[in-house]
Amino acid sequence: MSFSFQNRVKQVGLYCLLSLIALLFTDNHLFGQENNSFKGLPFISNYGPETYKAGIQNWDIIQDDKGLIYVANNMGLLVFDGRAWTRYGLNNTKVRSAHFGKDGKIYVGSQADFGFITPDQRGQLLYTSLADSLPDEVRDFDETWKVYEIEDKIYFCTFKRIYVYDGNSIDIIQPDSRLEKSFQVDNLLYTFQMESGLSVLKGTQFELVRNGDFFKEKRIANVLNYEKGSLLIATVEYGAFLYNNGSINPFQFKGDFWRNDYLINYSTRLRNGNIAIGTQNAGLFIVEKNGELVLHLDKESGLMDLTINYIYEDINGGLWLAMNNGVARVDLNSPFTFIDDRMGLSGSGYTALLQDDVVYLGTNNGLFKWEKGKINFVGGTSGQVYTIQELNGKVLVGHHNGTFIVEGGKARKIFDENGAWTFKSPPGQPNLVIQGNYTGLFLFEWKNGSLEFKQKIKGFSESSRILEFDGDKLWIAHGYKGVFKLEFNENFTEVISSKRYDSRSGFPSDVLINVFKISNQLIFTADRGFYRFNETEDKFEPSVEYGDVLTKQATMVDMESDELGNIYYIEQNKLGVLKLQANNKFENHSSSFNKIRSYWNDDLANIIVLDNHNILIGGKQGFIHYSPEKDIPRTVQPKILFKEIINSGKKDSLIFSGHENDKHPLEAIQDQKFKYSQNSFSFEFVSPHYESGREVLYQYKLENYDENWSAWGYENKKEYTNLREGTYHFVVRAKNIFEEPTEEIRFSFTVAPPFYRSVLAYLFYTFGTIFLLYLAFRWLDKKHKEETLLLEQEQNQALKKKDSEIKSITQRTEEEIVKLKNEKLQNEIEYKNQELTSSAMHLIQKNQLLSNIKNTLKNITKDEKSRQLNSQLLKLIKSIDKDLETGDEWTQFSENFDQVHGNFITRLKEKYPDMTPQEIKFAAYIRMNLNTKEIANLLGISVRGVEIGRYRVRKKLGLERKDNLSDFLLRF
Predict the structure, then answer these.
(1) Which residues does the UniProt record annotate as the domain Two component regulator three Y (predicted)?
(2) Is residue 914 helix, strand or coil?
(3) Distance (Å, whole) CA 161 – CA 191
(4) pLDDT at 30 over 60
């Protein structure tokens, strides 16, 4: 079952040695022919006016040091970065020519103008006209058809004259006659003049080259280096000529591909030595130096236009075509080409076979035959073709409609059973063929050089698409049931033993199990990795085969090796080749195959090794051809550049617009400081890798903001909004479709803090805080003092309140005391008043009594006749009168009266000093509210005398008649 790796390497080494010896004796040219015979059409990218949004006609193409493509268009200068087109109007003139100068400027020639384009400090392209500085007499030209650079001088070539710009001034070369197109070869400038022929510029004059008049009236399309000392001169209508120091010979196109009515617009020499010719009416031709056709592209081949005005080879070997209607890019250096309906092949590719010099191709539309560069349908084979195999020198075709054999370029059905998958001859039985079919296995036998159906093999009826023998045992992989191991009887007419191996036998699942025979060794694969059969335990176990170059989780769909030991494989979503190295190890090469990952057929995916130089991969449309010798390491590292950087906030502003040179590099605008109100940024970036198109992957991060790189993605824009203050570095990198990374580019900038977080603000905050703390301290101190004062005031108020309360209490106490005193005094007054009243009453009673006694005594004396008694009685009467008249009682009375009545008598005397004692007594007695009779008794006068006394008192007091005497005296 196994085949040692060492033996395999020995076989490979022997084959390589034999191949090398054969090559030494083989004409290299013939080998080149054979190698080219089975190539398809290259990748072609067409860009129409609707894509680049400009005029249909394009005249010139250049590329700058960043990889950007510039196209001279009828409506201006177009710039293409691989993703998007931009148009620059240049004074609304038709641009005819362009040149990328050594000084980094883009020199352009246009309708009635010429000048240069340079970026400003923000990376925006600005046009400067040089023609506008010319004197009027030399300003009258129509078109600037070509711009060249020779020895640091720029030559603007028009039909009237040539203008030479040295960076400061313009010199004028005035020819004797009208110029046609001019051409640069090395450091020489040639021009064509219809009247004279081909001339060369020497100094400031054009001189006819030796025999240059041969080209008189033969319009020249271009002049190229051919060999040392030889030029290839292509004319518009008369083909091409080889010129060598006056010797002129026609350039011979080999074969019958060239016609005399093809009109040449432009030609150029490619880096590999081939010659590219753009025509007016037949598209593009690529020929070898000896004139042999390599490639012809026209509308049927995929070009959108037949008129090629200019051809440019970019730094990656891609061929750009400026056409009368659009722009195209042809991947000449790609190891992949297409074999599809443009070459006469229809349908999706499923199988292929190389037999001698013929390639048979099987698609879902039938069988096709590719011979001598032409593909033709093989009649009678319409429908799905599954396999094309060579057995016993015959070509067998497994078809949905049955089994076919190809003889004499024609297909003949030999078996009608539908669903012929594949064919295998049992080991040691070359006369027998087992066919895997939809419904099992069928046995065929070779008889008389023809294959004849013998019988259906008994004992097995499962669909059998994948068959591999291991000795006399046959392994059959089923799409969703696992893998079967079959043993046959002696003549292979019956399956005598059948066992199925699936997830119960060591596989991870029952689906996607395959078996391949590589270098005579069976390799089993499943939906996760490689497996080998352990006969001892009769089950499968994981294998480390190819584990060092393929992932352990790889799901292989197809594998096939070439004669050199290289293994081509298809995973579920990946293609590649394991290349055998000198150290007997494999090296996985898969990145190149990323180019076709969207083109290969994922239904019964297949990869077919025709020979070591021609590998076919089944495609959605036909096949994809792979040339291993063209899959060489790419030496040009992909680049990435900023396309646009915008700062936004309160207003939007452009920081950078994608273009730079030595005078205005991107570094010059790095490390800018932006206001906090402008703290949002938008970055657009691009990697101009034209083979990748829009499939370039990008990864970015903003240092000081993003912790990690972003995931790889196709989006080439990133926006950051509302960034905090700080210094940031936006870093971006890319990798193309071949997984080749670019270097990182970065843009650094600083966002200033808002005014409230600036250094001055923090100083202000610091000093402000200190000041506020000071004010706070002052305020707290003041507040403390105020609180202390308030507390004191409150305490004082409390004290005052307490004092007030105490005073109130004291006042109330005093008032109570006063009241008590007053009450006491009032009581005393009342008492005294009572005493006065009592005293007065007593006095009144005494006086009344004395008066009564006196009157009685007077009466007695009248009746008494005794003189002695009368004498005694008269003495007694006199004593009574004396007692009545005495004032001692009044003195005591007046003192007591003043005490009781507030010094009434004293005040009355002071205010009314004219009052007599008797009138004062009247007043005192009236204040005591004594009646007239009582007053009369006290004063010992009559009632009439009292009334007279009252009258006198009123008069002395100055009272009127309406005034009440008693009220006045009581209020006094």
Answers:
(1) 690-751
(2) coil
(3) 11
(4) no
Whole-angstrom Cα distance, residue 147 to residue 457? 77
pLDDT band at residue 883 under the 50/70/90 scheme: low
In terms of C-beta distances under 8 Å and separation of at least 24 residues, what long-range contacts does 853-857 make, across chains too? 853/880, 854/880, 854/881, 854/884
The pLDDT of residue 50 is above 60: yes
d(CA 672, CA 752): 10
Distance from C-alpha of 526 to C-alpha of 508, rounded to nearest angstrom: 7
As beta bridge partners, residue 387 has 398
Model confidence at 9, in pLDDT bands (50, 70, 90)? Answer: very low
Helix axes 759-863, 932-939, angle to 10 degrees: 60
Q: What is the pLDDT of residue 4?
A: 38
User: DSSP string spanning 166-188?
Assistant: -SS-EEEE--SS----EEEETTE
What residue segments make up the domains of the chain, in order of their start? 5-35, 341-630, 641-752, 758-886, 893-972
Q: Is the dihedral of CA 806, 810, 815, 820 positive or negative?
A: positive
Question: What does the alpha-carbon distance between residue 442 and residue 458 come to, in Å, rounded to a whole number?
Answer: 9
CB-based contact 75:94 (threshold 8 Å): yes
CA–CA gap between residue 108 and residue 76 (Å, rounded): 10
Residue 82 has pLDDT above 90, yes or no: yes
Helices and strands in the chain, H and E counts = 11, 64
Question: 395-404: buried (b, 16+ CB within 10 Å) or exposed (e) per residue?
Answer: bbbbbebbbb
CATH entry 1.10.10.10 includes domain 893-972? yes
The alpha carbon torsion through 355, 359, 362, 366 (nearest 10 deg) reads -110
Task: Quickly count: other Cβ atoms within 10 Å of residue 791's Cβ.
Answer: 12
Choose which CATH entry (1.10.150.530, 2.130.10.10, 3.20.20.150, 3.10.450.50) describes domain 341-630: 2.130.10.10
Q: How far is CA 416 from CA 399, 452, 567, in A?
A: 10, 12, 35
| pLDDT at residue 796, as a whole number | 75
C-alpha R_g of the chain: 67
Tokens describing residue 17: 């040695």
Q: Which amino acid is at 2?
A: S
449 to 109, 152, 387, 406: CA distances (angstroms): 72, 75, 20, 12
Model confidence over 85-115: pLDDT tens digits? 999 988 888 999 999 999 999 999 999 999 9
Is CATH 2.60.40.1640 the classification given to domain 641-752?
no
Pairing of strands 308-313, 614-618: unpaired
SS (H, E, C) 738-757: CCCECCCEEEEEEECCCHHH
Return the H-helix or E-strand segment holding 943. helix 943-957
Our CA angle for 568, 366, 337, nearest 5°, is 40
Give the pairing type, strands 473-478 and 482-488: antiparallel
Measured CA distances, 501 to 236, 279, 724, 793, 821 (Å):
71, 63, 63, 105, 135
Residue 362: CA count within 13 A, CB half-sphere: 29
Residue 36, token pair as written in the block: 């080219």
User: pLDDT at position 940, please?
Assistant: 73
Sign of CA dihedral 876, 879, 883, 888: negative
Torsion on CA atoms 781, 783, 786, 791, rounded to nearest 10: -100
Q: Is 246 left (phi over 0), alpha (psi -120 to 50) or beta?
A: left
Q: Mapped to the 3 state alphabet, what secondary structure does 595-622 carry? A: HHCCCECCCCCCEEEEECCEEEEEECCE
> What are the CA-CA distances from residue 888 to residues 385, 878, 892, 924 (Å)?
175, 17, 7, 16
Residue 848 — very low, low, confident or very high, per pLDDT cuts 50/70/90?
Answer: low
Per-residue pLDDT band for 844 (boundaries 50, 70, 90) equals low
CA distance 405 to 387: 12
